[in-house]
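Sample intake sheet
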Amino acid sequence: MTSDYDEQSTQSKQRVTTIVLAVLAIVFLCLRLLARRVKKIHLGPDDVTLIVGLLLVLVVAGVNLACVEYGMGRHTSTIPVDREGTLFKLVYAFEPLYITTAGIIKISVLLMYHRIFPVRYVKIGGLILAAITLAWVISIDLLAIFQCTPIAKAYDSTLPGHCISLKGALIGNGVPNFVTDIFILALPSKLIWGLQASLWQRVSVIAVFLTGSFVVFASIYRFTLIFSFEMTDVAWTLADAQTWCVVEVAAGVISACLPTTAPLVKICTRSLVSTAKSLSKSNLTQTGSRVLSRTDATSRSINVENSISIETDDAHTHRASSASFALENMSPLSSSHLKGKGWTMISAAERESDSN
C-alpha cells in the first residue's frame, strides 16, 4: 500500500497539458498578428497588451513546469527535503504571476471591445470592468505576497510567525475571477445581436465571442479543485488546480485572438472554393473528352458499316441481306440492350431498299 502511495504521480498530465496550451496560445497570437498584417492594420493597445499577456503566460507555464520538475504532482512526503524547499518557493511565486497574467488578458479583451464597438455603454461598461479587474489584481497580488509574517514563512514552514489561511485566500480570489469573466463575455452580446445582418451571421459572430466561455469554465473548474487542497500535502492536492491556472490564461489568449482572425478565415474559404471549382471544371472537361471519344468511335463504326453496305458485289449483297434478316429477328431485349450501351443499329436491308 505504501509503495502504491509513493508511486502515485500526475506529473506527465501536468507537463503535457501545460506545454500544449502554451503552444496553442503562441499559434493563435501569431495568427492574430498575421491577420493584422494581411489587413494592413497597425497594432493597437489591445494587441500590445495581449502580447505582454502571452509573455506572462509563457512565464507562468515555465514556473508550472519547474514546479513539476521539483515534485509537483507527487505526494509531498515523497519529495526530498532539498527539492521541497525550491518547490515551495516556486509555488509562492506562481500565485501573483497567475493573477497578474489573468488581469492583463482581461484588460486586453476590454480594449478590443473599445476598438471594435465604439458605443457609449460598451465604453462605460468596459471602464467599470477594467477598474474592477485592476482592483482585483492589486488586492490579490498583495494578499499572495504578504500572506505570511515574516514573508519567508510562506515557503519555509519551519520559521516562526503566522500565515493567513491559504485555502481561504485561494477560494476568495476565485469567485471575482470567474464573475468578471462572465460580465466581460456578456458585455457586447446585445450590440452584436442588434447588428444589421442575417440571423446566421449574428449567431456566428456571437459564437466566436462566446468561445471565451471556455475561460469561464476553466476558471470555475479550477475553483472547484481548490476545495481538495490540503496544506499537509501541497504538492499533490494543488497540482491540478495550478495546471488549470495555465489552461485558463492560455485559453484567455486564444479566445481573445479568435474574433480577429476573420480575414484569414475568409482567405482560406475563398481558396477552398476556388480549388473546388477548378477540380469541378477539370472533371467536366475530362467527362466531355470521354463523351467526344465515344462519339468519334461510334461515328467510325457507322462509317465502316456504310462502306460495307455500299459494296456492289453480289456475294456481299447476299451477306448483307442475311445480316439484315438476323437483326430483324433479334429479340426486343437484345435490341434494347445494345441501344442501352449507346450503340445504334443500322439495318443493311433498309439501306439497300432505300438505294433501290
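Comment: The chain is about 75% helix and 0% strand. Residues 304-356 have pLDDT under 50 and may be disordered.
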